Each structure stands twice: as structure tokens, then as C-alpha cells.
Amino acid sequence: MKINFSTPSGFPEFLPGEKRLEQHLMDTIRRVYESYGFTPIETPAVERLEVLQAKGNQGDNIIYGLQPMLPPNRQAERDEAGKGDTGTEARALKFDQTVPLAAYIARHLNDLHFPFARYQMDLVFRGERAKDGRYRQFRQCDIDVVGRKELSLLYDAQMPAIIAEIFSQINIGDFLIRINNRKVLTGFFSSLGVSPDRIKVCINIIDMLEKVGVAKVLAGLATQGLSPEQSQQVIDFISIKGDVDLVLAALNEFGDKLPNADQFKLGIEELTTVINGVRNLGVPEHQYCIDLSIARGLDYYTGTVYETTLIGHEALGSICSGGRYEELVGTFLGESMPGVGISIGLTRLIYRLLKANILQPLAPTPTQVMVLNLQEDLMPIYLQVSQQLRQAGIKVATAFDKRPLKKQFALADKQGITFCVVIGEQEAANKQCILKNMTNGEQIVVSIDNLATDVKQQLK
Questions:
Q1: What φ, ψ does residue 207 adopt, rounded to 5°?
Q2: Tens of pLDDT along 47-58?
Q3: In Å, how far from its chain's centre is CA 209?
Q4: pLDDT at position 131
Q5: Torsion of CA 414, 415, 417, 422, to 10 degrees
Q6: Is it the case that residue 180 has pLDDT exceeding 50?
């Protein structure tokens, strides 16, 4: 019977050069995260379903459930296979890393120190519709800081500094970190007389502005009972633009005029603290702004929110997002544990950047030098030279199969290997080798004893 071995829809599979690019980006992200004091953790791919769905954590995400698949000769064990320590329980794949972080903290509360700053680079799974650049399995590179009872807003300010440093280092062009505060939006809707049970829906509607346009946002607000005048006020408000000081000044003017503006003013106060912190951390002012249309659709965000876009490539959508939440972690402990975090959906980001030719795959192999095989009886020398280079910190592949020299050179060239080492009978007798630079075609004769030194100098 013919087996379909293609990948399931929505589950990506990288070629070697693309995978090496992913690892390079992960290394860069990891270095920046750790430079700000974040420590790594990893949570299971599988959580109890009740954890993922607790108090609306699931949002609009489609969860992949798990069940055991037994071989035909073991069907009688089906009932036992799903039992855990406490009996039959539903399990599912994690759809993000923030909810599992909350469960992780609850499980290890007495072993952690707070504020707890962690990073995670795990795979997550969502059963959404698979389409161009949207996957059902993808890697997220997250950081979060969680406090007990309180958490300084300077942690919120630190997030844009981290985002700016990462995207500057991976050199993908100009970007803009858009910052807002959910309390500003909540307070504004409240001052318009929108009932609390409809405010979150209204915020989710305006969060879709860039995707659906003004007309559909106005229509959506109308379904929530807003008059045409109120809906236009919302559009006018979230359209306020300018440098951060001008926007903050405009918000303060609004605060003086709006009725019942306590929540609104608290949001402005928090936003001002965050913007001042971002400025003091030295983030260039052209890399961030206040954008009042940014809301983040997840209900658990309560304060600062972020989205990052590439200038000139806005159609790619947000390349890094996140925000502050007050209740999520405490869901499992019954105490206040505020947190703030950001997430880079790395798999999706790589796809977008490659498709837009902003980044290119790396060479298919990390190998820097290939030691070619001219004569089987010289293999002991080839192995010794290979080890000599490796001990000097050089990445080496040894050609174990004797093939025409032209084909060995072609293989090295296809894999992006920089140097080939050629040792024939005469070179071996003289303790020398030919070192060929595959980039420019130049060849030099060097002693085997000095080979590692010469290669390292040319690799600089």
C-alpha cells in the first residue's frame, strides 16, 4: 500500500540552510534575552486541557487534543491508556507559552525567585486554518517577567529596548515598535457610556482596523450599540498620530474633558512612565511610537501592549507583540501575580522574511573545510589533518569516498564550503597540502603543520 509521506498541512519542514538561519536567529535572540537577565525554561508540549482553558485562557485559539492510538492487538487496553494519576483526564498540545508559564510558576512557586524573568523558545500548536505563512506548528521565542503582588512599569519599558536590540542585530531594515495601554482604550470607551461587558468586544473590533478597514470597524461598533457619532469619535481618537510627546499631550487634553476618566487617566500615567523608561534606555525615537489603535486581541492583556512592524513591509503584519497582564498567572494560585512579556513567532517570521527577500538562507552546512580524498591509502593522513583542524576550532568534513576530484569540488561548492584541502602522494611526502579557496578559486601550498593557522587567518 502506497503511503503518503508528505508533511501534514500547516506543519512546516525547513531545508538545511533555512534551519541554520533559524538557529542563527535563535542564537541572536538568546544572547539579547540573557543580556537582560532572562533565564531559560522549557515546559511540556502537552498540558491538561483544563489548564489551557482555565478562565477563558483559550481565547479564539483552536486547541489540538490528544488521545492514545493503540495497535490493533491492544484495543482492550484503550480505557486504561488515557488514565493519569487522578483518573481519566483530557490532555492537549499547548497553543502558546504564556498559559503554560502560569502553570509552571504555580507548580514551582517555592523554587523560584521573583520577579521571575524567563525566556522560552518552544514549539506551540494551533488548529487554525493553514495558509500562506500561517502554520499549525511554529516556534515562539518568548520572554516574560512575573512579580508577586506588584511589578514595576520599568519592566514594560524594558521590552521595547529588547525588541529594538534584537531587530537591529539581525539587520532586517527599519522597524517601528507601536506602544499603547489597554486602560486608555478601556477608559475611553467607558467615558462614552459603553457598558463594561461590551468594552472588550469593542477593543477587539478596533484591533482589527488594519486588517478590515474603517468601514467594517464602524459597522462592528454599531453592533455593540454605539451611535454613528460615538463610533466616529472612536475612529478619530485611535487615529491621533505624532511623536510621543505630542500624543501624550493630546491624551492629557482628552483626560481633562472626558467624564468618568479615572481609568483613562491611569492609562495615560502608565503609558507616560513606560515611554519615559524607553527613552531613558536609549531606544532611538524613530524606532517606537504611541499607536492608540493597538489593542492586542487576547483578553488577558490589561495594560501596556506592543506590536512591531517592518517599515516598508507593513503587509507582513506584526513581527513581535505582547503586553502586560494582571490576572493570568494568578489564575492557578488565587493571588495577584502581574506580568509583562513579548513573543516573536520565529517560524512565521522566517517564512515572511525569506519570501520578501529580506533574509536569505544560510549555507546548507556549517562546514568550513572539506578534506578531499585523492587516494585511499592516504586516508590516515586525511583523518589526522581533519582532527588537527577540528582541534583548532574549525568545522571540517572528510571525504571518505574516493570520487573524481572535479565532483568533490562541485559538492563542496554546492554546500557553500569555503575551503578544500587537497593532499596527494607528492604533498603527503612533503608534509604539505593545497588549500583551495572555493569563493575566489585561489590555491596556495601550505605546510600541514601551519594549515590550521592559515585557514583561521583567511576565515577572519
A1: -65, -20
A2: 999 999 987 777
A3: 23
A4: 78
A5: -60
A6: yes
| Bridge partners, 433 (sequence order) | 446
Domain holding 151: CATH number? 3.30.930.10
Q: Which residues pair with 176 in a beta bridge?
A: 309
Q: Provide the residue range defining the domain that includes 442.
A: 369-459
Q: CA-to-CA distance for 254 and 257, rounded, in angstroms?
A: 5
The DSSP annotation for 124-175 comes to EE--PPPBTTB-SEEEEEEEEEE-SS---THHHHHHHHHHHHHHHHTT---E
The closest of 128, 186, 144 to 39, measured between CA atoms, is 144
Chain segment 78-125, per-residue pLDDT in tens: 555 555 444 468 999 999 998 999 999 999 999 999 999 999 999 999
* Separation of alpha carbons 374 and 355, rounded Å: 41
Percent above pLDDT 70 for the chain: 96
Q: Which amino acid is at 342?
A: I
Could you tell me if 296 and 154 lie in one domain?
no
Q: What is the rounded radius of gyration, in angstroms, for the C-alpha atoms of the chain?
A: 28
115 upstream amide cis, omega within 30 of 0: yes
